[in-house]
Every structure is written in structure tokens, then in C-alpha cells.
Amino acid sequence: MNNKNNRMEEQGQRTPRSLDAYQDKNGVKGTAYCACGAVFRNKRWVQESGEARQEGQNIVCPACHRISDQNPAGIISLSGDFYAAHEDEINNLVNNTAQNSAAKNPLGRVMDISKEKGGVTITTTDVKLAQKIGRVVFKAHGGELHYTWSHDGPPVRVTWSR
Predict the structure, then answer these.
(1) One domain, residues 91 and 144
(2) What is the per-residue pLDDT for 47?
(3) What is the pLDDT of residue 144?
(4) Residue numbers of the domain that contains 47
(5) Are 51 and 15 contained in the same domain?
(6) What does the pLDDT average to over 63-82?
(7) What b-and-e string marks burial along 78-108, b requiring 16 or more CB atoms within 10 Å of the CB?
(8) How far apart are the C-alpha atoms of 98 and 59, rounded to whole Å?
(9) Are both 52 and 84 inside the same structural domain?
(10) With the CA atoms of 108, 124, 99 and 115 taken in that order, what torsion angle do they form, in degrees rounded to the nearest 10?
């Protein structure tokens, strides 16, 4: 089959609003709390600290669910001689980016950071966080940055090297 036929078959099909299997398709009614501190209120997840807990249901947020399943939405690989020479600086940049992002989106978290020969692999609970980490490292240090998306949804693979 050529690309023209594939495009024609897909044309007119309704695209699902979210391909993320970890988002509740029926929605959460009212207020809900996760043990990690994330709160679902007014149709969105927020991070609230220091507030007295109000009435609501206890659930597992999508990020905690991904972490327990060990199923990342983003996989980032950072490697190269430049990375090896500036490892601490780049890792601090990654950590700061993840912390700043978590303040806005409590579902975007770093799941794991594993050192490998000549680099590091970082997994995230959010596709956008993975893309952002790659973009921030690229803007700060140049090099080569590549994104690879799956047609079926997460994970996105982000590869940076220099």
C-alpha cells in the first residue's frame, strides 16, 4: 500500500482526544486525592501543599499509575564525549527542568535516571516533559537532538548527543 492510500484511509476518522491509556476516559467526578500529593479539582490535576484536605475520593493519579507499572511516557538518552565532560552540569539542568515542570504539571515527573556507558537514560511519566528536557539541554549545549514518536501514542524517545 502506498502513502496516498494510507492517508485516505485515515482521513475522516475521528482522532481520540487523548491516546493516553492512563487518563480516566470517564473522568473523575468531584475532587480526588492521590497519595503523592496530586489533587484532581476543577477537571485538572494540581499540586497542593499545606492545605487541609477536603472531602473527596482517594485514587491513584496517572503518574503514580505509570510509575507502578514501570511504563514511561518518555525515554530520554543523553550521551557523547561532551556529556561525559559536563555530566554534573547537564544533570543539574535536567533536575531543574523537571522540578520547574512539576510545579505546573504534577503528572509530569522523572521516573528513573540510569547511568550507562557514555551517557544516561531518563524516563518520564509525561511526553511533554521528555520533549522539554531534550529541548532545554539542546538550547544550552547544542549538539544533535532527535525525537521519535510512536504512531500509537507514548512513549516518545528523545535522543541528544554531543
Answers:
(1) yes
(2) 83
(3) 95
(4) 3-67
(5) yes
(6) 94
(7) bbbebbeebeeebbebbeebbeebbeebbbb
(8) 24
(9) no
(10) 170
- Tell me if 36 sits within 8 A of 64, measured CB to CB: yes
The verdict on 14 and 76 lying in the same domain is no
3-class DSSP state for residue 5?
helix
Q: 49 is written with which cell numbers?
A: 501543599
As a whole number of angstroms, the distance between CA 9 and CA 5 comes to 6
Q: What is the mean pLDDT of residues 51-64?
A: 81
> Which whole-number Å values give the CA distances from 18 to 2, 25, 40, 52, 126, in the listed order?
27, 9, 17, 32, 13
User: Is the domain of 128 the same as that of 82?
Assistant: yes
Claim to verify: residue 85 and residue 153 sit in the same structural domain: yes
**With bands split at pLDDT 50, 70 and 90, how would you rate the model's confidence at 1?**
very low
- Average pLDDT over every residue of 118-125: 94
Q: What is the pTM of this model?
A: 0.79
**How many domains does one find in the chain?**
2
